[in-house]
Amino acid sequence: MKEVWLIYKQKTLDKNGNVVAGSKTSCKVESAEGANKIFRAANLKNWVTMKAEQYIFKNSDLEFCVQDVDGLGLYLEIEQRGSMAKEPIEGMIVVAKSLGLPLGDDFVGVKLPYELYLKRRAGIGA
Hints:
Layout: E1 4-13, E2 19-29, H1 32-41, E3 52-58, E4 62-69, E5 73-80, H2 88-98, H3 112-121
Antiparallel strand pairs: 1-2, 3-4, 4-5
C-alpha cells in the first residue's frame, strides 16, 4: 500500500510576489480517499486534478525536477538548498548558466495547478 502524506506549506512573499521565506510540515494520513472525504466535509471543492510524471535529479545543494504535466507541457524546477535569493530569477540564471542550460528571456512565476485550471476553463486541452 502506498503512503499518503498531507503537506502544509507556509510561504512569506515580498511586495512583488516572490517567496522570501518558507516552511513545510508533513503528516501521514490513512488514505487519499479519507483525505478527500475530510476535504469535502470541510466544504472544500476539487477545482483541478493534475496528473504529472516527475523526474528528480540532485547533487549536494541543487535539486532539479522535470515535470511532464498532462495538458500543460514540460517544466523544469530548480531548487537551491539553503538559498533564499533576493532575486530568484537572477539565482535561476546563474545556476542554469553554470550547468550550460539554455534559457529564454520570458521569466514568469508559474503555479502549475492554476495554469492548468485557466487552460481548461478557456477550453484549451483536455
